[in-house]
Amino acid sequence: MLASSSDSLKVSALIPTYNRFPLTIVKGKGSFVWDEAGEKYLDFTSGIATCNLGHIPEPVKMKLVEQLLTLWHCSNLYHIPKQEKLASLLVKQSFGDQVFFCNSGAEANEAAIKLARSYAQKEWGSEKYEIVTFTQSFHGRTLATLSATGQEKIQQGFAPLVPGFRYLPFNDMEALNSLVSDNTCAVLLELIQGEGGVIPANPEWVKKLDQICKENDLLLMVDEIQTGMGRTGSLFAYQQYDIEPDVMSLAKGLGSGFPIGAIVANEKAAKGFQPGSHGSTFGGNPLAVTAGIATIEQMIQSDFMNTVKELGTYLSEKLKELKQTCSQIEDIRGKGLLQGIVIPKKAGQVVEKAREQKVLLLTAGPDVVRILPPLTTSQEEIDDLIAVLESIFKYSLTD
Ligand SMILES: Cc1ncc(COP(=O)(O)O)c(C=O)c1O
């Protein structure tokens, strides 16, 4: 049946999977976006940790335009030189030896889950399939990745879940004693839980986890979909922990906003896959890998990461100063340019008030305001954010 024009005004043709803010963004450049009315907003969400070089970064744009005029798509039945180039860059910058490309974070974690099972079953037999993950984690919305996610609200309504996941409390030393069962083959964790509330993993706990994995030949898999690509002050967050993972999943910032995902694996884990084990029509698409190459080439330029580290320290110090003036703030936590303000039950209100003052922020649950500036931000922009937060904390929060 055809909908009348008045119907189409009332009912969106989109299945309502998102609660959207009352804002329509039509343009972006650097740290800013503009709405339909031409109003300018300071975007400290970076498209949820995705536009890490700001909106439409010039070097990525130029390479994408060149590629747009050359080749858009090529199936993985043929060689794609830029896939090789991006894989080599990722390998050179990390613990990894080989890379598989896909299109999103959930797909990257799906690949990691399949790789872990396949590696362990070849090595040890079919009883080794269990992957340990942690409470409050977030690993994606596909059936396997929501089964890996340690949050009931994400899993609700989708039973039966994919079997073979067990959840332990995050940052709990004691709980590590029960990490290994007869079936365990791998551990999957975020080094800073992003969606779960900006909760950094404790370094001693992570070290112990790494040791247990090494002693029991479990794959240590780090989900760096939110923490990777410079977000926490190093190219990858694991580089700030004294560990050597076996597998790392990436997406979000890898393509500066162009959809791409990847897993990076060491030689041992990569043996889990051979031709026919896994695949994706669009995985490693020429446009996507072009965006990835241009992005990582910017980030590995001398001083880029040093500046990000300095900006992260500046932001966290300014937020800590702000905490002194506002008794409702319980904590400031995070690493680099992934920072959280813990303000119980008020995070949504703070985000709304900031939007009214033309600054975009995110929540991470009801108690945490999540701040994700582009890595190309400046001290002046951070000062602007702090001034807006100061006025919100002083004058506008209601009970
Ligand atoms: C840590 C982590 N893992 C996985 C995902 C899922 O990524 P995507 O939405 O690209 O599927 C996200 C997305 O927020 C994430 O933050």
UniProtKB/TrEMBL annotation:
Entry keyword set: Amino-acid biosynthesis, Aminotransferase, Arginine biosynthesis, Cytoplasm, Pyridoxal phosphate, Transferase
Cofactors named for this entry: pyridoxal 5'-phosphate
Catalytic activity, reaction form: N(2)-acetyl-L-ornithine + 2-oxoglutarate = N-acetyl-L-glutamate 5-semialdehyde + L-glutamate
Binding site for N(2)-acetyl-L-ornithine: R141, S280
Pathway: Amino-acid biosynthesis; L-arginine biosynthesis; N(2)-acetyl-L-ornithine from L-glutamate: step 4/4
N6-(pyridoxal phosphate)lysine PTM sites in chain numbering: K252
Residues holding pyridoxal 5'-phosphate: G105, A106, F138, D223, E224, I225, Q226, T281
Entry's cofactor comment: Binds 1 pyridoxal phosphate per subunit.
Compartments, as annotated in UniProt: Cytoplasm
InterPro entries (UniProt xref): AcOrn/SuccOrn_fam, Aminotrans_3, Aminotrans_3_PPA_site, Class-III_PLP-dep_AT, PyrdxlP-dep_Trfase, PyrdxlP-dep_Trfase_major, PyrdxlP-dep_Trfase_small
Pfam families in alphabetical order: Aminotran_3
Enzyme Commission number, as recorded: 2.6.1.11
Gene3D superfamilies according to UniProt: Aspartate Aminotransferase, domain 1, Type I PLP-dependent aspartate aminotransferase-like (Major domain)
Other noteworthy facts: May also have succinyldiaminopimelate aminotransferase activity, thus carrying out the corresponding step in lysine biosynthesis.
Family the UniProt entry places it in: Belongs to the class-III pyridoxal-phosphate-dependent aminotransferase family. ArgD subfamily.
NCBIfam families to which the protein is assigned, alphabetical: argD, PRK01278.1, PRK02936.1
Annotated PANTHER family: ACETYLORNITHINE AMINOTRANSFERASE, MITOCHONDRIAL (PTHR11986:SF79), AMINOTRANSFERASE CLASS III (PTHR11986)
Name of the protein described by the UniProt record: Acetylornithine aminotransferase
Biological source species: Bacillus carboniphilus
Name of the gene: argD
